[in-house]
Structure formats: structure tokens, C-alpha cells
Model the fold of this input.
Amino acid sequence: MSLLKPFSKLPALNTANILLVESEEQFQQSLADALVKETGVTVNVRLAKSLPLPMENEESRPRIDLVVFIINLASELSLKSAEASLKYLDPGYFLGKVCFLATNARNASVPTERLDAVRKLAALLHCPLLFAEDQTPDGVANATERLLTILKVAAGLVPMATALYLSSLTQCTVPPDIDQPSFD
Amino acid sequence: MDDLSRRLLQRLVRRIPAQALKTTLGKWDRLTAAQRQSVDFTQPKWTITETLLAIFEENEWTMKHVTELEMIHIIDNPNQGMWYAFQLMDPEDDAKSVELTQFKEQFKAHLSELVRHVSVKIKKHTDEAVWIRIAWGDSFSRPNHMKPTYVVHHLQTPYVFVTSLTSKQKPLLSQALILSTRHQGIKDANLSGRKLAAIRDLLMKQYQQVFPTKYPGTLTEKNQTVSNPRIEREQAELGENRFQMACEAFGDGMLPQLQSAIYKLETKFRDHTNKTMTEREELPFKCVVKFSSTNLLESLRECAASGIASTPVTPLLSSIPLKGRNYFVITDNGLGPSSQTNQPQN
Done:
């Protein structure tokens, strides 16, 4: 078991590296294409289906500044896979360098229990939870913009802000009465 | 021209779209040029029927000619009902030398020995297939041309494809086929589908297959979607492996279109925490799993390639193309021989 560590490598100048983890490998591709178009900083994208990452890429892999778990709410497998992958992250990442991105939340067939489970998971790990629309170009552009904002902070490219500071403001919180049946 | 053949012609014209009717009549090649001109395909169906009926009366054509027309249409558009595959077994020494004329004579003779009233029509299609149209009757009734059975057989192959056959007629057809093709038995091939071409391709392995190899050359090039140097797939190799394995199991390129696959489980229930279920020891635990899709094999390949189904592909799924069947009965000893419950129904 090899943990992915946030500070085991040196950062490169004006560069931010993001790791997109998605079990279905659909949305991550369009997201990656949009992310690398950013001109202000050099964005490197790594795509993975699940963690742990293969050992043989260890050398070539840059320091990962932000890990994004993409969860398709329409699929139970997607959530289970993300949960299983979380074990292979160094605890240091949870100080503001992990975020969850949920898709398909507007789909009527999604059970509310799964949405609650994702929210609880994000709240428990003190991570922000973003919602995105993966079908339309607008939705992809929106999600890209939000991720870039977090990524720049996490990579230390924004003066006076740190990932820990940002995450204390953006982390997901769950209302205390979420488990009560009347909650909606 | 009698009433029956008139009704059959009416039904036939009603069922065939006007444009298809034009080509069918063209292929039939019995109408003179003038007669063909007189049929106006832009008219409503009943007018076309009237014109055709008049031509039939004029030439004194009978049921034989109407069925000819029907056959031409069915050969061109075979995907209208469920097709069931059968496999001939234990060929005799002279099975390889059966040729069309001999087969025709033998088949007709054997079938009319078994059933008094039966009307058989045999036609060889361009792709080497022999098409047989059987209108069944019994000892008291004349052949029913409204519900014909169609049989497709490629000479010198063990496969027979049948549509709309009732369980009562099945033994009769089986016997006639066995005797005329010089085999000793016939069995259900456990394959059925709406597309005749698809089940034929699957059984005769006429689709693009991929064989296991350690050196995937062309496949990796095809699968390269990542173009930007700043995007990198961490598990690219894994993905390619999955794709390769999915192609090995289901084939590459276009796949035969199957509509469904059925798995019938008849196994013992093994869970020691559940007393009520394990106590009924002798009784098997029965359940039926059915996969259906417009193109089942394509869907399964996609499932395996995208990682939704685990790879290497389980033998349960890969034996659909491998064994060419889509009905399985699973007993405790693995994939057991299927029982006789899958008889084609009308």
C-alpha cells in the first residue's frame, strides 16, 4: 500500500498539478481538456480510475496539489469506489487539498440517501463538496473555473491564502437534523 | 384463384410497404413489363391489391405463385419474428455430399410421409442458404398458408434456423431434416434472436474476432484519446488491458446484434446464516437472470472495457460468443446442458 503524500516532492515554478479520480472515466476527460487551457499557470492533469496509483509512475508524477474525487450520484459503484480510494491518501491531503465533485445531482432518479451519504462523507473529512453539470459545455466550464480557484490556492500560487485557510471556509457542513425523517 | 390465395395475397400486400413491394415484384420476375406498369405504387393499398388480384386472375395464377411472392419478401426481410437455431449432430459418411436437388426431393418426401397435408416450398438464395417454407396441415385440414414456418439451412453446415414453429410441428420437422441432411440427431442450439444474420454470424463465427496476444500493437494506437502532453492517465495500461480483454472475449468491430441472454440458475443455496433457505436441501434454488439490449454483445463489451464488469470477462458472459448460445442453465456442476424448456413458441 503506497500512500500519496502532499509534500514528498518539490513544487515547480508557477505550476499546479491536479489529480482527477473518477471510476467511470467519462467526465474527467472533458474536465481535463478544459483545465489545461488555463494560461495564467501551467496546469498538469493526472487522471486515475481509482487509488492507489501505480508504482511505476512514481518517478514521473509531479507533486499533486489537489485531489478531486468525481462522484456520479446516479451510480452506487462510483461512490463506493471513491470511498475505497480515500484510504490511499496521506492525512496531510485532508488539510484542504481534497475536494469532492458530485455530478448528476439534479437527476430525479438519484436516491436522496446517496446524496446525504456524499454530504456526510465530505463533512466528515472537512472537504468542500462541489456540484457540477457534466453534460453541457457550460457546466464543464463552470466546474473548471471552480476547481482552478481551489487549485491555485492549494498550489500556493495565491498570496496570503493557504489551502487550510480556504478549506475552513469552504468545507461542507451537514445540518444537525439531516437524519431526521422530516428533513427535506 | 381460390378464396384462400386471395386472402393471402391481400394480407401480403397489406404487410409490405409500397416501395418494398415494387422491388419484390421486380425480383419475382413473372409480371410482364406492361403489367408492371399498370401497378401504381402511389395508390392506396387496396387499389394495388385490386390490380394485382386482376393480374393473378388473368394469368390463372394460384396459391403457388402467391407463396413464391411471400418467400421473396421474407428472404429479403428476414428480421420479422424470433429465429431459433438448431444444430444437427452425428453426420453420416455421405453427409458432406448432400446437394440441393437431392436434399429438396428427400426433404419433401420425408415430410409428406409424416404429415398428409403439407405444402413445402424450397428456394436457394444467392448466399448459399436454402430457404424452406412449410405450410402445415394435419390429416383433416388443408395446409394453413397463413402461418407458415420458415427454415433456413446452409448445406454442409450443421446449423438450421427456424422461425414460427410450434412444439407440435417440431418433431416432424426435426425428423425430415435429419433424414434429408444425412445426420443422426438434432438439438436445440440455445440461441435465438430477432436478426437472422446476427445469429448466423455468431454460430458460424463470421464476425471480427480478436485472439489473445501478448503484443497488443494496433489496439493501443487505436485507443489513444489523450493528446495533450499535460494530461496523463495514471492507469492507462490498465485501461488498455481491459479493452484488449474485452475485445478478446467479444470480438472487435461490428458485433452480431443479439437482443437478449438468459441465465437460469438451478443451484443449491449456500449461506449458513440463513437457516430457512439451507434447510430445504433437496430443492434447488431457482432464479432467472435476463440481460436485454438492442445490441447485447456491444453492451457487454462496453461494460468490460469501461470497468463496470470485471476483467478478465467471466466465462458466463464470454461463452455467449464463444459457444454461440444465449440461453444457459447453470447447475451446481457449472454450465450444465440446457433442459428442454426453451422450445420455440409461436
Summary: The interface with chain A takes residues 225-226, 228, 230-235, 237-239, 306-308 of chain B (CB under 8 Å). The CA atoms of residues 117 and 138 of chain B lie 6 Å apart. The domain at 244-336 of chain B is CATH 3.10.20.720 (Ubiquitin-like (UB roll)). The two ends of chain B are 29 Å apart (CA to CA).
